[in-house]
Amino acid sequence: MTTQLKSGHTAEPLSDEESARILKDFPGQVDGLVRVQPGGWILPTPYLEIADKIYDFKFHESDVVVMTHPKCGTTWTQEILWNMVHNPNIDSPAAEEAVNGRSPYLDNPMLKQFAELCPGANPADGIEIQRVAAMPGIRIFKTHLTFPLLPPDLLDTTKVVYVGRNPKDMCISYNHHYRISRTLDFQGDMDLFVDYLTNDELLYGPYWDHIKEGWKRRDHPGLYVLFFENLKADPMAEVRELDKFLDTDLTEEQMTKVIEHTSFDKMKARDAFFPMNEEMKKKIMNQEVVQKEGGFFRKGQVGDFKNKLTPAQESKIDAWTKMNAEGMGIEFKYSI
Ligand code: A3P
Fold first, then answer.
1. Is 176 touching ligand 1 by the criterion CB < 6 Å?
2. How many A from CA of 9 to the centre of ligand 1?
3. What is the DSSP string of 15-39?
């Protein structure tokens, strides 16, 4: 059945053949996927329940939206921005809450599953879009949705920080994510995963189109484009730019504190991603993979793909990059 969305897009379930194949390779993905056209965006079926609400969402002038394709540095950026705005002296007790509690994930498709996985959790938390509408003060949002699925005046209304990352490290990180998340539960090897990536069949892709939608708006004053690699190489340079972009007017000392508080080691030690206790974490994350290869905060490095991808897998990603990114003028360090 085709669903017409207010954004002008249509959403269609995948074909029976595709769904069966995907369910075999990703048995945790029981909610199914839809393909949204134009664009071929792959989204979880529960997105359809909130698509129009997100399109109509009333952003405030003071809001900041962190927009990314998954695994490009979303959580790191959310944590930096939230602390710059709400905790520049790193002394706020509110900072103890997990980052996605303080910085809501607008299109979170998981909350229904959370309620099932975590009996006793407050069902009101399952309605992220209502929760955030009532949130006071400057709101720092996360979304994996691409610009065309959000309100068309988004950049004129509010500030957006778009975060990109080189596709090979993103691929390694996404593969890990697809294996630790029980709601995805990828069963195949890296060859198969690279096939899914380069066939643009992974959630929130096509990756290159997601990046393009951000990049082509880079001159808009409402947008700051940030790259994982640059943030890693020189966090102070990026935080200084973000300070100007957000008008936070932080001192050097405050910026230094924020950078320290949001370092990979500190965030990994806190391990506070979604607000959930250890028992919930065990339910939603494959503990075997977590023990062997790390949890959500895996390595946080640039260039780890070199330890993980075979020359043939790299060539496949290179060809896909060439086909999709030629002429864009983006030079990801270590990307090709
Ligand atoms: P790796 O899997 O390569 O370690 P997202 O938040 O978009 O899902 O991205 C997750 C990636 O960002 C993971 O990459 C994670 O480890 C990394 N990350 C999270 N916090 C980080 C930090 N403070 N510094 C560097 N990388 C970080």
1. yes
2. 31
3. PHHHHHHHHHH-TT-TT-EEEEETT
Element (H, E) at 262: none
By percentage, how much of the chain surpasses pLDDT 70? 92
pLDDT in tens, 45-93: 989 988 998 999 999 999 999 999 999 999 999 999 999 999 999 999 9
**Cα separation, 261 vs 263, whole angstroms:** 6
As a whole number of angstroms, the distance between CA 122 and CA 101 comes to 14
pLDDT tens figures, 5-37 = 999 999 999 999 999 999 999 999 888 999 999
230's enclosing H/E stretch is helix 228-233
Amino acid sitting at position 329: G
CA distances in angstroms from 224 to 33, 64, 74, 150, listed in the order given? 30, 11, 14, 17
CB of 267 shorter than 6 A to ligand 1: yes
Give the residue from 106, 126, 113 showing the smallest Cα distance to 51: 106
